[in-house]
Design a protein that fits this description.
Blueprint lengths: L5 E4 L6 E4 L42 H10 L11 E2 L5 E7 L9 E3 L2 E4 L3 E8 L7 E2 L16 E6 L3 E6 L9 E6 L17 H7 L11 E2 L5 E7 L9 E3 L2 E5 L2 E8 L7 E2 L16 E6 L3 E6 L9 E7 L18 E9 L2 E5 L2 E4 L3 E7 L7 E2 L18 E6 L3 E6 L9 E6 L19 H7 L1 E2 L1 H5 L1
């Protein structure tokens, strides 16, 4: 596996092209070079639920509160409380810059409770691109939009917990949570050990052809195998088989690719695991599940075709660990924006810390930018990289150490950045890039990310 598996996302169409892999992504007809778009929420923001509007605005239950706390653990304006907006038919939230908050971009307020049937409207503050994107499901997604005063609305009919985030600034902690009515267990990142959240599973797998409405019991096994791709006897082109399973905590699940089409294994209601898009019959990806809960996942290219899965983990926490890491470990995702603003050209954050195996999306938000590694300023053994100017791109960082990079059109204007993978190290340490300044590597590690505005003052 090379140090950088490139997937360039064409900004206009949202199609993905994998570079450095053995083959091309294809749709159900086998057309090379095509990736199906993610399932987005309705553009008009209307929910598709049929709730009865009987929520009483009660306090979130402990399992749900734990999910909220976990989701918002790096959200600067979250203080552990859920603001009560029950009794209101419409609620307004801010998306972006909020005066008086230390974090650059937030949802304000970050955690709220509403009645079923409430319409929530997010209003953009500032000119930076933001989104409102469902984290523990796929009911709504505004897409990345720019413009001070831009709005996006969603009506929440079904009771439950809805976690969400801003795509460009998820790694910076711009996240939110909505409690609709009351719910005992929650359907977010795991179910707090209360057992299978069948309502969330049934909804997630509603268009999955080989799902029959029940979980296959694989408890009592230390290792479980799941097929990813083509399965004989199924009408759907690509599936996970079996699609929904029940296992014990500490079980290792291994997905094996079937066929030569590109697939992924990507956590839908959290960000604990992501194989990235890989090709090759017989390719494998493994994840050990130590924490009880409900884990929903999908294949990135074929999510809209119903290639999805669900895993229910039961029992106490195991003592095994994932080979690719969990939490902030390998296989995670992060985002760096590439921006032109009032004569300034910059990456935001300008400094980012990730673990080996993390895929970083370089989002071309405003202007025409790219990302190019400095020769002699990346770790030994790492591969040089250079992305297409004006396009959003994804790079997966496999080798630990310090990476310095620049924007080719704006190199002489000081558009430079730094990413530290794992621990700082390599030839970039001890000096600044030749065309500009970046945060010190240890500062990046200590803070997790350093925004451009914080660095430049």
């Amino acid at each position: 596996m090379t140090d950088f598996e490139r997937r360039k996302v064409l900004k206009a169409g949202g199609a993905a092209l994998t570079i450095g892999l053995a083959g091309c992504i294809a749709d159900s007809r086998g057309v090379p070079g095509r990736s199906d778009p993610p399932e987005d929420g309705d553009d008009d923001g209307t929910g598709d639920g049929t709730g009865d509007g009987t929520g009483d605005g009660s306090t979130p239950q402990p399992g749900m509160q734990a999910q909220i706390d976990d989701h918002l653990s790096d959200t600067g304006n979250y203080d552990g409380t859920v603001q009560d907006f029950t009794g209101q038919d419409a609620v307004d939230l801010t998306n972006g810059e909020v005066e008086g908050t230390e974090q650059a971009y937030v949802f304000d307020p970050p955690a709220i409770q509403v009645d079923p049937g409430t319409e929530i409207t997010w209003t953009w503050s500032g000119d930076i691109g933001h989104s409102v994107t469902h984290s523990n499901g796929d009911m709504f997604d505004s897409g990345i939009q720019t413009g001070d005063g831009t709005t996006f609305s969603q009506t929440f009919e079904e009771e439950g917990l809805y976690l969400y985030h801003c795509i460009p600034h998820r790694s910076l902690g711009q996240k939110g949570a909505i409690v609709v009515g009351e719910m005992g267990g929650g359907n977010g990142n795991g179910d707090g050990g209360t057992g299978a959240d069948m309502e969330a599973i049934n909804e997630h797998l509603s268009d999955t052809g080989n799902y029959g409405g029940s979980l296959e019991d694989l408890t009592g096994q230390g290792a479980v195998d799941v097929t990813n791709g083509e399965v004989e006897g199924t009408e759907q082109s690509y599936v996970f088989d079996p699609p929904a399973i029940r296992i014990d905590a500490g079980t290792e699940v291994t997905w094996t690719w079937s066929g030569d089409i590109g697939h992924s294994v990507t956590h839908s209601n959290g960000d604990m695991f992501d194989s990235g898009i890989q090709t090759g019959d017989g390719t494998t990806f493994s994840q050990t599940f130590d924490e009880p809960g409900t884990y929903l996942y999908h294949c990135i290219p074929h999510r809209s075709l119903g290639q999805k899965g669900a895993i229910v983990v039961e029992g106490g926490s195991g003592d095994g660990s994932s080979d690719d890491g969990t939490g902030n470990g390998g296989g995670g995702t992060a985002t760096v924006e590439m921006i032109t603003d009032s004569g300034n050209y910059y990456y935001d954050p300008i400094g980012l810390h990730v673990e080996a195996g993390t895929t970083v999306t370089f989002e071309n938000v405003e202007g025409s930018h790219n990302v190019v590694s400095y020769e002699g300023r990346i770790p030994e053994g790492a591969e040089q990289f250079s992305t297409t100017i004006g396009e959003t791109a994804e790079l997966t960082f496999e080798t630990a150490g310090t990476y310095d990079f620049y924007c080719q059109p704006h190199k002489t204007l000081g558009m430079v950045g730094r990413i530290v993978v794992g621990e700082p190290g390599g030839p970039a340490e001890g000096s600044m890039p030749p065309d500009g300044e970046v945060p010190d590597s240890q500062t990046i590690v200590d803070q997790g990310s350093v925004s451009y505005s914080d660095f430049t003052g």
